Amino acid sequence: MAGNDDIIVVDKLSKSYAIGHQADGWSGGLRHEIEAAVRHPLKWIQRQRAVKEEFHALQEVSFAVKTGEVIGIIGRNGAGKSTLLKVLSRITEPTSGRIEINGRVASLLEVGTGFHGDLSGRENIFLNGAILGMSKVEIQRKFDEIVAFSEVEKFLDTPVKRYSSGMYMRLAFAVAAHLEPEILIVDEVLAVGDAAFQKKCLGKMQEVSRSQGRTVLFVSHNMSAVLQLTSRAVVLDRGRVRFFGPTEKAVELYAGSSGADSSVFFPANETPREKHGSQAARFISFRFDRATPIFSAGEDFTFFAKVRAQEDLPQLRFSLTVYSADGQPVGSCFGAERPGLSRGAETEVAITIPQPRLAPGRYYCGVAVGKGTNRTGQVDFDVVFNTLAFEVRADEGAAGTVAGWHRNWGSIVFPDLIYS
Amino acid sequence: MSQRLIIEAGRTERQYWRDLWRYRELFYFLAWRDFLIRYKQTVVGVAWSLIRPVLTMLVLTMVVKVGKLPPGGVPVPLFVFSAMLPWTFFSTAMSESGNSLVNNANLVSKIYFPRLVVPASSVLVSLVDFVVSALFMVALMIYYRFVPPAQVVFLPFFMLLVFAAALGIGLWIAALMVEYRDFRFIVPFVVQFGLYASPVFLMTSQFPEHWRPLYALNPMVGIIDGFRWSLLGGENLIYGPALVSALVGVSGVLATGLWYFRRTERTFADKI
Question: Is residue B125 part of a domain?
Fold first, then answer.
């Protein structure tokens, strides 16, 4: 299984936690321990020796990652994702099994670990850098770059506790983004911050993996982000590897195990949304009309949006922007108004762009629900960015040049030329 | 470019000391942070590390004068402050490093580094206060035109001893506190009680003869006596058994502290 170019090899890794204490009603106090030892010395000694009940957070997990690969790790809450990352980053030891890592690891299990509110932005850059494993010289060398990326130049000498949460996140991510490890381990970093910030983070991570050839392990609940960033993914289920392979299949499997039907499912509450929307209607979820989010260049693009109305809304209007994986908007389209919903009601609307003629590649969508049209004036109730990630594959044997589409040709395949 | 890293159960042992060296910068940075944040949003700032010991010294000077305790043939403030130097350092360093792991729980549960860095850097921070106090001691000596005796050359040895004592006990408490937060309440009590169980405003020779061996079991007795002896000399002598107890006690506590800390370290992130 392990090839020569494998940078990480995880072999039969298991981690279990003793949960016997809690089962005895032990609450973690010294007094209880002493009391138990004095009252029932024999029992106490027995309990110290007894095999405690174990919770297996990871069981025989094996996989190998090649140099320069971006691997997604997905699974439901409690599937063992965080434990896996903690073992990989050496925060906690495995119970058995072995991991071989060939390179410097930096793990980002949280944005801004070690940030101290009383310290200024400048001081926190140095502190956080040191905590993440950078040397002082390295931080000094990259200081200007970090500051530029974070866009907080003016507030460098202000204590970070006075920062807005957005500034705080940007500064924290900026430090982490300038680490130069061979392997980067990232956990749910993108679950915070506004849409623009998330886009920036995703862009930076793509840059890190593509142009600098770093290996990235990326844990997220945001299926769009996972689909955009990663080529292969590990699906964890109750501590075991359920699947390891192409991301599309992994996402499909995960979506299936989250309780949705077999089509790829994107819950809206885990994706960033526009803050200004009145939320009179809210998106609940999105799904594609198919089990795998892969479309061919010539076909209709259809998805379902589930919406709930918070007040009586006689009319609803949907609109959509498609972005390429690197965050560039490709195009938008707007629907006419359609019959709305009464307060508290939910509906699932099928939305189709007839033959968008997208070039082969990866895309994702921003979807808005509102009222009004271009003529009457539009109001958006809810806007969800970064959902419904999909891939367009070249049509085998299609006419024209679609099969061998080159990146520099853009994201739209126009209809074939006409000579006149 | 790359280094190979193997993660296995029980493996960290072998890479530990190398890692400790690699993370030495973090050690300075943590100490630097603790020092910076300590006096943020205060008006007088670093002056606090002088004001506190000076006020305590004034109070203890009153105690000695009112109680008509013999100050060992030297001015009372010198007598009191020479003992407060090691005692204040020991009590702050020990409680700071004891609390350090729990106070840095977010780091411990999110980032890998040799955990020893945290309590050790806390002791380093207290050392800054110690230096400030030592400068005040020098100023006091100049004020009283007091020339320290020749045995002042032994002072670094006692400084090393008090540093080791603070680190050793700090390691024990830090490791225990991860699981038993009870120590958060035990430590201030021990510090308060320890002031009376150590020769800060008394000389060891003033203790009843037959209680003295028991008294000497407190390793701080030997250390404080040592400070006084090397700084002031004169009637301030070192009680032999106390010195032995200090040497044995400190090396024992440091060795076992390291051992216990290393043994429990791998589960800190799970328990904290």
Answer: yes
| Within a domain: B246 | yes
Instruction: Indicate the burial class of B44 (C-beta count within 10 angstroms; 0-12, 13-18, 19 or more).
Output: exposed
A294 DSSP β-pair partners? A391
Inspect the interface and report whether the beta carbons of A126 and B29 lie closer than 8 Å: yes
**DSSP track, A136-165:** HHHHHHHHHHHHHHHT-GGGTTSBGGGS-H
The contacts of residue A87 (CB under 8 Å, 6+ apart) are A13, A15, A58, A93, A94, A99, B7
pLDDT tens digits for B75-97?
Answer: 888 888 999 999 999 999 999 99
B180/A28 touch (CB, cutoff 8 Å), yes or no: yes
Collect all residues of chain A within an 8 Å Cβ-Cβ radius of residue B41: 118
Q: Looking at residue B146, what DSSP letter applies?
A: P
* Nearest by CB: B33 against A90, A96, A119: A119
B41·A118 Cβ contact <8 A: yes
Is the pLDDT at A188 greater than 60? The verdict is yes
Q: What value does the mean pLDDT take over residues B29-52?
A: 84
CB contact B69 to A (< 8 Å): no
Q: Which domain holds residue B127?
A: 25-271
ipTM of the predicted structure?
0.81
Residue B245 forms part of a structural domain: yes
Per CATH, the homologous superfamily of domain A265-396 is: abc- transporter (atp binding component) like domain (2.70.50.60)
Closest partner CB to A93 (pick from B12, B25, B26):
B12
Total tally of structural domains belonging to chain B: 1
Question: Quick check: is B1 in a domain?
Answer: no
Q: How many CB atoms lie within 10 A of CB A403?
A: 14
Enumerate the residues of chain B whose CB falls inside 8 A of the CB of residue A28: 179-181
CA distance B80 to chain A (A): 36
Domain A59-257: top CATH class: alpha beta
Average pLDDT value for residue range A275-286: 81
Say if residues B58 and B133 touch (Cβ distance below 8 Å): no
> DSSP string of A369-399?
EEE--TTT--EEEEEEEEEEEEEEEPPTT-S
Query: Could you tell me if residue B239 is left (phi over 0), alpha (psi between -120 and 50 degrees) or otherwise beta?
Result: beta
* pLDDT, tens digit (0-9, with 9 covering 90-100), for B138-170: 999 999 988 888 889 999 999 999 999 999 999
Q: How many CB pairs under 8 A join A and B?
A: 112
Extract the tokens encoding A344: 């508290």
pLDDT for B133 beyond 80: yes
